[in-house]
Amino acid sequence: MLMMSEGFMFGASSAGFSALDQEKMQAEVGEVTPDRVSLGTPRNLRAFICGPQKLKLKDVFTLHLLKMVALGQVLSVLVCGTAVTSQYLEQAQVATPMLQSFLNYVLLLLTYTVTLLFRRGDGNIFQILKSKWWKYLLLALTDVEANYTVVKAYQFTTLTSIQLLDCFVVPVLMVLSWFFLKTRYRLLHFIAVGVCLLGVGAMVGADLLAGRDQGSNSNVLLGDCLVLISAALYAVSNVCQEYTVKNLSRVEFLGMMGLFGTLISGVQMAVLEIRPIKAISLDSKICLLFAGFMLCMYGLYSFMPVVMKMTSATAVNLSLLTADLFSLLCGIFLFQFKFSVLYIVSFVVITVGFIMFNVVPTYTPAPSVNTERIYQSVATSDIAQEEGETVLEEGQEKQDESAWSHRKPCSSLCSLQYVV
């Protein structure tokens, strides 16, 4: 009775407000309910594109937004470091992509997996493996094969095709986030993605004008399919990563990736790269290149969950679109690439698109929202079933307790009716 009366009082109080008043209250608090995001009817074009938020210039260029832009470019620089070291290794006739990935996973194993060994309780590695080992095995397999297929694609198709088709990861990420993470986007987010892809188009055009259409034409169809497969695998891996770091633990994710990534990449390396590894003539230069690649990749894996927890997997991948531009700038000084003004235009366009995407926040329901709302709705009541009797431990009088004890046992469905 207490719960029903409280629910009635709550409903009556909320009914006293009009829809306009509730929208104003939400705008002041800064929260957007799922109904507003997915089902709200906009009253003008601005509301349709951006939502009910009243955006001002000072609300757009915040310190948080500038921090996200800067952190995203740090990730791009790390990706650039892996590309430059890989290109130097290729010039030295070292083609061992699985060995390079294996070294990164080993470093993750030695740091984050070992950290899980010393944890207690549910965060201990044995407790994690006991309940979720197969999930992390599939996730690590997805990540390892995503890295391998994109490197393999360079043997069959051109750099231009890889740059264009690799953007396929963004729409796949948005679709997966919509269905699995329940992320809801505004029209502005789709416009921002289109702006970023226009920036990538400008970068590809600059490559063509500069004669940088490198790669192979031996089997373009196979190479393009490998790029699309890699993009889809990266999208799956990033969605799982976003869920894990936001709901579980960054250390748990990286520790499991280090453990299973080392096993999978080690087996694949032993099968595919024994001969190329034996043919490597180790010297100080080769060792430094391997170390540089390993440190850049380790920094990327360690730092990306931090940025992803602040934003989303989609936003992180939009910021990574500028990684090719940093690689090109390094190539101008290291590999004598030709400079084009379109590179600067591309960087500016991609950055503008990234800012547009983060101006209006996306809605992603937190796992604890429903639980918190349930406890708020029942207020001081705590329902527990023991030996076929429903006990109200708080907020009840003695006469109510005796009345409940003579009734039929309430099922879980009955409890849900009172809660909802």
Q: What this model shows, in words?
A:
A two-stranded antiparallel ribbon has the order 1-2. The protein starts with a helix and ends with a helix. The chain is globular and about 65 Å long. It has 21 helices and two strands. The longest helix has 29 residues, at 63-91. 74% of the residues lie in helices and 2% in strands. The relative contact order is 0.15. It has 420 residues and is mainly α.
Which residues form runs of ≥5 with pLDDT under 50?
1-20, 22-42, 368-420
Distance between the termini: 14 Å
Main sheet properties = 2 strands, antiparallel
Which class best fits the helix and strand makeup? mainly alpha
Overall morphology: globular
Number of strands: 2
Q: Report the β-strand fraction as a percent range.
A: under 5%
Q: Taking all residues together, what is the mean pLDDT?
A: 75
The helix tally amounts to: 21
Portion of residues in helices?
Answer: over 70%
Q: What order do the strands of the largest sheet run in, or round the barrel if closed?
A: 1-2
How many whole angstroms does the radius of gyration measure? 27 Å
State the order of secondary-structure elements, H for helix, E for strand.
Answer: HHHHHHHHHHHHHHHHHHHEEHH
